[in-house]
Amino acid sequence: MTSRWLLLIPLLLLLSACGTLSRPGGYYEDDGPETSPPADIANIPDAVPKDEPRSASGNNPYSVYGVTYTPLADTGGYRERGVASWYGKKFHGKRTSSGEPYDMYAMTAAHKTLPLPSYVRVRNLQNDRSVVVRVNDRGPFLHNRLIDLSYAAAARLGILGTGTGVVEIEAVGPGEPATQVVKTYPLQIIPPAAAAEEISVAPAPAANPKLYLQVGAFAQRENAVSLRDRLEREALRPIFVQSSQTSGGTDAAPVYRVRIGPLASVEEGDRLTERAAQLGIRDARIVVE
């Protein structure tokens, strides 16, 4: 690879998917839908998973805005919830991180760490619509977004108007089942009152997703409580500490997560993320249960 190509990679990564959400509808500056999109956008079919070689570009570790990302070696067992956004005409026809031109009317998506290319099923947890997309780009890198969808995929999921949607994504491949079982563990909430008892809570059902802003995760309960108390004094509330076992099993040490919420909307999560950054917490992220 030439030195010129190495210099171009960071620029391509920054341009390949949408960033700051600054317009109604959730798209970036002069991005968005075209004046006359195809009339049959709702009938564009899902991407069909197939075995493909990894793309020559976009699969090595890279850094954007001071954060280093290491793409996954494979997609086995991958499933995650988060916030989806979309990108459109500003990037239509431009080179993606995989080297392919971006087609806003194809069923594609951008993701920070999934292999390029790979396939995922995206399900809108707020209306239960789902699509299968081919991941061929990197992003999104701002505003706690998990996946950046093409215009066509966003239209199918019903999130064009809002600009964002609360989704669950899971890897799919040729002949694989659409759903994979993920083991969950009991959660506990430690309320602000020091003398209060710990309360057990169950995960929210998929049909009624709840959003939280996670501002920290600690191995020591005392550190989590200290952060919770500091942010509560700054009026970031309701805030609580949630303890849960890691995937190591029942004998594994708990992880203490400091979370704010539930949030009324993705936009509230964005505002709280900016406020947390002002207080020195730059890795806050929206989580979905």
Contiguous runs where pLDDT drops below 50 for at least 5 residues: 1-25, 178-206
Summed up, the domain count is: 2
Quickly count the helices: 4
State the share of residues found in helices, binned by percent. 10-25%
Output the radius of gyration: 20 Å
Mean pLDDT: 81
Counted beta strands: 14
With strands numbered from the N-terminus, the spatial order across the biggest sheet is 3-7-4-6-5-8
Secondary-structure element pattern, one letter each: HEEEEEEEHEEEEHEEHE
Distance from N terminus to C terminus (CA atoms, Å) equals: 43 Å
* The CATH class of the largest domain: Mainly Beta
Q: What's the CATH H-level homologous superfamily of the largest domain?
A: RlpA-like domain
What is the global morphology?
A: globular
Signal peptide: 1-22
Keywords: Cell membrane, Cell wall biogenesis/degradation, Lipoprotein, Lyase, Membrane, Palmitate, Signal
GO cellular component, one term: cell outer membrane
Region (Disordered): 26-60
